[in-house]
Amino acid sequence: MTDIQKFRADVQRLVKHNRADNNGRYNAEKTCNDIIALFLRETTVPGALPQSCAEYWKRTYIDESASPENEPTAENVDRLGAILSFLENSGEDEELLTDDDWRMLGELVNYEAEDLPLDILQALMGVIVQKGAL
Q: In the chain, what is the greatest distance between 2 CA atoms, to the nearest angstrom?
């Protein structure tokens, strides 16, 4: 099991436990915030970049959803897993991210560049350039 697959399995458990802890009622806002907290614990990238990426995911895929009370969908969890994969330079599920996602990730990396270790910055920028997002 890869780290990204483990992240997805942990998200599924988190959703299940949040529902059980609320007597079967689902609180999407709390669940999404708990998922973001898990995402932030899972990444090894220092600084504010992971938080910025998580906020982008929530704003773009959760807050703009046609049915936010049912979020996150499996597809949106997979997208967050793909963002985690990008940050961790594992290359998993890159195809799940759109051109707009890649452009925004490039902007976020550029914005946070001065706070990133050079090796991490080079790896992230290499992927961004490969995706044609600059």
A: 47
77-109 pLDDT, tens per residue? 999 999 999 999 999 999 999 999 999 999 999
Nearest to 53 by CA among 4, 18, 88: 88
pLDDT at residue 55, rounded to an integer? 98
Tens of pLDDT along 36-67? 999 999 999 999 999 999 999 999 999 999 88
CB 77 within 8 A of CB 5: no
Q: CA neighbours within 13 Å on the CB side: how many for 85?
A: 20
List phi, psi (to 5°) of 127: -70, -45
Q: Which residue has the tokens 């914005």?
A: 111
Strand ranges, E, within the chain: none
Q: pLDDT at position 59, please? A: 96
Residue in the block written with tokens 């946070």: 112
- Contact yes or no for 89/124 (Cβ under 8 A): yes
Closest CA to 94 of 131, 39, 40: 131
Q: Where are the beta strands (DSSP E) in 38-85?
A: none
